[in-house]
Structures are given as structure tokens and as C-alpha cells.
Amino acid sequence: MLKVEQLHVGYGSLEVLHGISFDVPEGAIVAILGSNGAGKTTLMRALSGLIPIKSGKIDFAGKAVGRLVAEKRLREGLALVPEGRDLFGSLTVRENLLMGAYTRRSRTEIEQDIERILERFPRLKTRLQAHAASLSGGEGQMLAIGRALMSHPRLLLLDEPSHGLAPIIVETVFEVIEQLNREEGLTIVLVEQNAHQALEVAHTAYILQSGSIVLNGEATTLTANSAVQELYMGG
Amino acid sequence: MTQKPAVDQELAPDVVAQPELTGKKTLGGRLASQRVWLGCIAGILALILLPMLSDLIFGGSSDFQLHHISLIGIFILAALAQNILTGYAAQPSLGNAAFFGVSAYVLTWLSSDLGQPYWIGILAAVVVSALLGLIVGTPALRISGAHLAVATLGLVTTVGALLNFWDTTAGRQNYDLSNLPDFLNDDRTLYYFIFAIVVCLLFLSYHLLHSRVGRAWIAIRDNETAAEAFGINLTKYKLQAFVISAAMTGLAGSLYATWATTASSSMSSADQTIAFLAMIVVGGLGSLTGSILGAIFVGFLPLLLGQLPSPMVIGSFQLQISTLITGIYGLLLLLVLIFFPSGLSSLGTQAGNWLQRKPSKGGTE
Ligand SMILES: Nc1ncnc2c1ncn2[C@@H]1O[C@H](COP(=O)(O)OP(=O)(O)O)[C@@H](O)[C@H]1O
Ligand SMILES: [Mg+2]
After folding, report:
1. In chain B, pLDDT over 90 holds for what percent of residues?
2. Which of B8, B225, B233 is facing A123, going by the closest CB pair?
3. Would an 8 Å CB–CB cutoff place B318 in contact with chain A?
């Protein structure tokens, strides 16, 4: 569904990603693991069209999207749950959800989708009129995911969904990710430092080191790999 | 499927005191919207009754007072315009005073020199301002922060100088606005005219700010990257804010010329710019109520202080109040900023929170 080939991305003259290639089959959860500064967020921004690519190809559902602006990619079904959630703090929970559907027009469909999302995240239902800035970390992450779902994505890009959350909340976030994949057939690309959790839900995984992919394979294989264990799972 | 409720309960430890909090939120929301409506109705009633009250309070000199109250209305429009651009769309542009000045000259030129009807003059002033907003806004989108502020301040002083140059070459001391419709020569009808426009624009702004456009502005302000990721066209919405703000300032400027029956190049000056900026900072960035309170504070307080008797006699002291006005005013400004750093509008929120909390705590306070 998503095919990335020889992707070079950077900021100004600084190149951060040095020719990255990977494949995301439809219906899969693919994890991209890397430590701080490896270029994970840069990759997510490049995939969603927030920064331009220097060279390489991004094909999504058989279409070359590498040069499209963010809005066009969103319309194609590529939605981002940004690092640190990036909620609209002074808008309410409901308004944040509406912002997720900004490219869509049908009011009735949008209302139905809000209902559907609130059913999935009942916690948000009770906080519907609260400002997003007042949400707890877990609620905020649910809202960030809900907001992305409002755009009717076919593929969800998740940038460190576990970042800054208490371990018990991290677990529920990963449960939600698994549910979305299993129940709605949503394809997911998950970027994480938390290799342990990510490998539990992912089908396949890629290891990103200083802007290059150094290892890839089935999640179970990588979990057993001693190098991966040492580097990313604290031995 | 059975996992879903479980997921939700596990989120609970992350949040404190949920049930009460959410219960209060909905009730609070209802109370808040009722308060807004009551406030609106009370405000409009007060505006209608004010001229009659001012007769009672100020007696014979009431027209003078009413004339000055009308000025607040004009400042509210200008503050609203600046707040939409800076408080909501987050553009630190200081260029509005240029539109304020230009629109006054457009109206006066059309009305006094060309003998065009007043309404044509107002319309032209607003349209010219909107176009200038578009012309200024387009390059302005490429610069940000302090650069934008300084560049637009440069625009203001340049435009002020040009208007002054025009006055000088035309050999006129004052550029008087003649040809006004009769009812605008009367302080009372001028007052109603101005405040009818203010109420309409407050209403329109409220709806604009709660529409797709307003949400887009706030989203851009809160998080530009996320806004872009969700398909909001940054250029389009920022430009829209520039144009709407300029048009509204143009309306304020032409009303100011109507009020003063003259156009002056000092309307496009750094002083005027600072006044607009002070209004929204003192009142509250990103707040409609803030625009109103800021306009009253910055626009009207100096006039009110000017009404104090001078010299004021306290015991054996004779105080030359008039020489102290600027100082008193500056001090008050300072105090407001110290005690209400997020603006006078937070006063309302604080009072509201306090009122809301009181009954639910069962009088433990
Ligand atoms: N906006 C930026 N401008 C310049 N360099 C950046 C920017 N954002 C990130 N970088 C650099 O790119 C590299 C990768 O960063 P990032 O993609 O955020 O890594 P990760 O998300 O894996 O922690 C880092 O060396 C970082 O300093
Ligand atoms: Mg990152």
C-alpha cells in the first residue's frame, strides 16, 4: 500500500535521511524503530508532506504522492498522528475532531464519524467541551488519534504514540492501535523508540540508525535478535 | 469488542476527579452560554438607554459626554480588527493604523472634494482598505515575528508621511469632512449609528470566529504544523485575516473621520499603532470581550481622567490634575498588566469560575 524508495530528506544543506526504502503491505502494522535523533520524525513529516523530499519515491495506493502537498496526501488517505500529539490546545475536544475532518464537507457524515469515534473513546465523550489543553496525556493521545481518524484515512502514521505517557497508558494506546488495525483493517506505520511495545503489535519492523535502515524483518524475528535486544530493549 | 470499555477504564488513573469535573463542565457550559446571552441583551439595553441616562447624570453638557462615548465604539471596531489579525490569526502585524488613516482620507476626499454621497465614501474606504490589506498581506506572509512587526510599522509611518505630504501640497491646515448626512451631525444619532454598527460587527465576528474560518485561524495559532497536516491552507487563511482586519479597520477609520469631521495624517502613526496594540494586550488577546474592554480602557480612560476637575482641591492642597493625567494613565496600564497579564477579559473568566465553583462546593468556601 505504501512503498518508499531511496528517500533522501533533510533540512537545508543538512541531510537527515540517506536513502530509505521500505514497504508497507495493506492491512499491516509496520514499526520503524530508532533512538532519539535517528530521523523518525523527519521521515513522518516527509511522508505526510510537511517537509519536501530531496529525492526518492513515495508511492501510496499505486500513486506517486512524494511531491504532493500535505492536504492532497490527506485526501488520498494518509493521516498523521504527530509527535507530542500537536493538539489545538485552545479548541475544544469536539472542535479538534472537526479539524480532523477539515478536508471533508458532508456535515451528516462528519457527525456520524464523531459519534463513532466517541464510541471508541468514551473518555473523550465526557470531555467533549473541554479545551484540548486541559486533557491528560492519555486523553490527548486518544484525541490525536481520533482527530486523524476523522479524515477517513487508509493509512495512519503514528509518531511515537507512547512518548511521555505513563506505562499503563502506553499499554492502552497500543491496544487501541491493535484494535484499529484488527477491527477496521487500518494500515499503520508506527515510529517508536519504545521497541519492546512496538514489536509486540507490529507485524514487520525496520531499524533506523542515523538516517539509514540497518535491519529489517518480522517483528518476532527482530524481538529475538540479540543486537536489537541490546540496542533498543535494554538487554 | 469487550476490550473497549476496559481500555477506557484503564485510562482513568491518568485523570483526577473525573465525574464531578465532567458534570460541572456541561452545567458550566450551559451556564456560560446563558451568561453570554444575558450579557448581550443587557449590553444592548444599556447602549440604548445610555444617552437618556447621560442626560440625567451629566445634565447640560451631556452631548459632550455622549460624543466621547461614541469614540469608544470606533475603538472597539479597531481593537476587534487588530485582535482578529493578531489575537486569533497570530499575525503580529502593526499595519492597521495605515488603513485607519487611508480610509479617513478616502472618505473625506470623496465626500468633501468630489461631492459624492457619504455612503459611497464609506463603501469606497472599506474596499480600498481591504485591497490594501491584500496587497500588504501577500508579502507579509513570507516574513514573520519581529520582522513583520517592524516592516508593517514602517508602512504606517510611510503612509502617515504621504498623507501629510498631500495635506501640505494641497495647502490645507485641516482636511474637513463636509457633506455629512444630517443625522450624523447630531451627537445622539451619531452615537446610535456607531453603536448599531459595533453591535452588528461584534455579532458577525462572533459567528466568524466560531465558523470554519475562525477555527482554522485558532488552529494555525495553536499549532501551525498540525493545521497544515490536516489540510488547512495557511496562506489562504492568513491572507483572509489580513483582508478582514484591514476592511474592519477601514470602517473604523472612516467612522473616526465622521466622528471628528476631519481626516488627519496622525491617524496613521506609530502612536495610533501602539494604541491599537495596547487595546488588545490590555483587553486580552484572542478575546472578543477583551477587544471591548481594551478599547474602553485605552481609548476612553484618558478622556475620563481629563474630566476630573482641575485644579483639584484636597484640604489645603491644590492638585493640577491635568498635568498628571498621562502619568496616572500609564500607572493604571502598568497595574492592569501586572495583575491581569492575560488581559482584562480574564477578569470575567475568573469571576465566572468563582461563581460556578461556589454552589457546587456546598458553601465550604
Ligand atoms: N527543523 C529542523 N531543522 C534542522 N534540523 C532538524 C530539524 N528537525 C530535526 N532536525 C535534525 O534532524 C535529525 C533527526 O531528527 P528527528 O527526525 O526529529 O529524529 P527523531 O524523531 O528520530 O528523534 C536530528 O539530528 C535533528 O537535529
Ligand atoms: Mg521524533
Report:
1. 56
2. B8
3. no
Amino acid A5: pLDDT = 97
Closest ligand 1 atom to Cα of A159: 21
A193 in Cβ contact with A217 (< 8 Å): no
User: Can you tell me the distance from the alpha carbon of A139 to that of A18, in angstroms, rounded to the nearest whole number?
Assistant: 36
State phi, psi for A32 to the nearest 5 degrees.
Answer: -120, 115
Chain pair A-B, CB pairs under 8 angstroms: 108
B309 φ, ψ (degrees, to nearest 5): -65, 135
The lowest-confidence range among A12-16, A64-68, B57-61, B172-176 is: B57-61
**Which residues on chain A place their C-beta less than 8 Å from a C-beta of chain B?**
48, 50, 70-71, 74-75, 80, 82, 86-91, 95, 98-100, 102-103, 120-123, 126-127, 129-130, 136-139, 142, 147, 151, 166, 168-169, 171-172, 175-176, 179, 183
pTM: 0.86
Give the residue from B341, B221, B223 showing the smallest Cα distance to B281: B341
Strands A14-24 and B175-176: unpaired
Quick one: cell of B198? 459595533
Total domains, chain A: 1
Query: Please, which residues bridge with residue A187 across strands?
Result: A155
Q: Residue B162: name the closest of B105, B243, B245, B96 by CA.
A: B105
Query: Is residue B187 within 8 Å of B67, Cβ to Cβ?
Result: yes
Is B339's Cβ below 8 Å from some Cβ in A? no
Residues of chain A with pLDDT below 50 are none
Report the alpha-carbon distance of residue A124 to residue A134 in Å, rounded. 12
- Starting from the CA of residue A35, give the closest ligand: 1
Q: What is the pLDDT of residue B21?
A: 35
What is the ipTM for the molecules in this complex?
0.91
CA pair distance B17, B24, nearest whole angstrom: 11
- Does any CB of chain A come closer than 8 Å to the CB of residue B227? yes
Print the domain residue range for A189: 2-232
Q: pLDDT band for position B12 (50/70/90)? A: very low
Helix (H, G, I), strand (E, B) or coil at B82: helix
Of the candidates A76, A88, A137, A176, which has an alpha carbon nearest to the alpha carbon of residue B88? A88
B219: contact with A, CB 8 A cutoff: yes
pLDDT: is B323 or B6 the higher one? B323
Say which DSSP state A153 is in.
-
CA A125 to CA A113: how far, in whole Å? 13
DSSP for A87-116, please give it. Answer: --TTSBHHHHHHHHTTT---HHHHHHHHHH
Q: Which of A16-25, A40-49, B101-110, B143-152 has the lowest mean pLDDT?
A: B143-152
Of B12, B15, B225, the CB nearest to A50: B225
Of B10, B18, B226, the CB nearest to A82: B226
Q: Which residues line ligand 1 (CB under 6 A)?
A: A 11, 14, 16, 34, 36-42
**How do residues A54-78 score in pLDDT, each as one tens digit?**
999 999 999 999 999 999 999 999 9
Q: What is the number of residues in chain A?
A: 235
Length of chain B: 365
Dist. CA A164–CA A23, nearest whole Å: 28
Nearest to A173 by CA among A130, A142, A219, A127: A142
Q: What is the CATH number of the domain that holds A40?
A: 3.40.50.300
Q: How far apart are CA B132 and CA B241, in angstroms?
A: 13
